[in-house]
Amino acid sequence: MIAELAQAFAQQAQQYLQNNLRTIKKMSSFGELGIFLLRFVRIYKVYYFQIWGRIISTQSRRCPMSLKFEIVKHIGILSKDRNSWTKEINIVKWGENAPKYDIRSWSEDHSKMSKGITLTREELDNLFGAFLKMRI
C-alpha cells in the first residue's frame, strides 16, 4: 500500500515537471527557477500530506490499538462531575510499563476514561515542590 502511494506520488511529480519543461527552459535566472520550484514544492507538499494521511488512516484501521491498564492502587477522588465521572489520582500500570501516578477522570465502573496525565514519583515530587513554592 505504501509503495503504491509513493509510486503514485513520484509519477504525479514527474508528470508535472515534464508538462512544465518548456517553462523551465525559458527561465533566464536562478530566481525564476527558485520561484517555480517553491510553487512546485507547495503544490506537492499538500499532495504528499494527503498521501501520508491515507497511509496513517489505513494503518490505524488495520491495527486497532488495545489499551491495557491495571489500577494498582486508588489514592483518592479529586472531584466529581454531573455525569457521575470522578477525577481521581491512582497508581496505574499501563501495558507492560512500570506503574505511575495517574490523574484523570473515570466513569463509575472504570471502564471508560478521559485524557489525563501520568507522573513518575520524581515528577510528582517536583510538582509538589512547585506547589509549595507557590504558597510562600
Radius of gyration based on Cα positions: 26 Å
Counting H and I runs of at least 4 residues, what is the number of helices? 4
Assign the CATH class of the largest domain.
Answer: Mainly Beta
List SSEs in N-to-C order. HHHEEEEH
Q: At CATH's second level, what is the architecture of the largest domain? A: Roll
Taken from the alpha-carbon principal axes, the silhouette is elongated
Roughly how many Å apart are the termini?
Answer: 59 Å
By secondary-structure content and strand pairing, the structural class works out as alpha+beta
Residue stretches low in confidence (pLDDT < 50, at least 5 long) are 55-64
Count of the separate structural domains: 2
**Secondary structure: number of strands:** 4
Structural summary, described in words:
The chain has four helices and four strands. α1 (2-19) runs antiparallel to α3 (30-62). It has two domains: 2-62; 69-135, Transcriptional Co-activator pc4, Chain A (Roll). It starts with a helix and ends with a helix. The chain is elongated. The protein is 53% helix and 23% strand. The chain is an alpha+beta fold. It has helices at 2-19, 21-26, 30-62, 121-135, and strands at residues 69-80, 86-94, 100-106, 117-119. It has a four-stranded antiparallel beta sheet with strand order 1-2-3-4.
